[in-house]
Amino acid sequence: MSEQFTRTQILYGEDAMKRLAACRVAVFGIGGVGGYVVEALARSGIGALDLIDNDKVCVSNINRQIIATWKTVGRDKVDVAAERVAEINPDCTVRTYKTFFLPENAASFDFASYDYVVDAIDTVAGKLAIAECAKAAGVPVISAMGAGNKVHPERFEVADIYETSVCPLAKVMRKECKKRGIDSLKVVYSKEEPRTPLAAADGDIAAEDGPDAPAEKTSDASAAEFRSARRRATPGSTAFAPSVVGLIIAGEVINDLTGQK
Fold this sequence. Notes:
Distance between the termini: 23 Å
Largest sheet: 7 strands, mixed
CATH superfamily of the largest domain: NAD(P)-binding Rossmann-like Domain
Oligomer: single chain
CATH architecture of the largest domain: 3-Layer(aba) Sandwich
CATH topology of the largest domain: Rossmann fold
Number of helices: 9
Radius of gyration: 19 Å
Strand order of the largest sheet: 3-2-1-4-5-7-6
Number of domains: 2
Number of strands: 7
Structural class: alpha/beta
Helix content: 25-40%
Order of helices and strands: HHEHEHEEHEEHEHHH
Strand content: 5-15%
């Protein structure tokens, strides 16, 4: 075992470290949550990682995403994360997929090849598809619920989706999981009531117009209406809420793979 993992081996033992080195984990979504998952898994000795995300690092990511710096702005998130993993553990095999996971492309991923699946994406349809694919393949999966608009990292906890409350995303997921016959899903969520975002600066909205922006803004009134809608839709986030969710998820993955109680 490499010297860099000796402190971890002191807690888990040699056999557990060998197990981790032989495992492949898929992380869907390399953002505020997923980036910290990848970071912790790489530092824990996971032998192979599949990183799935089609987004690029933008300036507004810098406040919370471990892969986001002024140097990485504009680059593909999976590429930046893969480079970071290589600098942490050169023995870790990394496969990158520059695509957003959707139900339509779910068949492109061999879930049976994974030892564990991490869902750190934002869309309900995608999260449900990941849960369904993992269930069909008999692979353990853990899903991040809402971390946006929350400021108390100490309130995040691990639970089954049917034991959750308060979290709006978890409420939708409970309903949809039941419809699809998904009888269990490990999640990380918080009972903290989401805060209502304050109005963002116009510059922040413009910087994140993205594909949802109208092709033309023909009047001051329509532009103001668009900015107002973006303020309502764009969640606030901090450096410490999504990072805690990511580290909790990574801990669950490592402990489950090594059989820790």
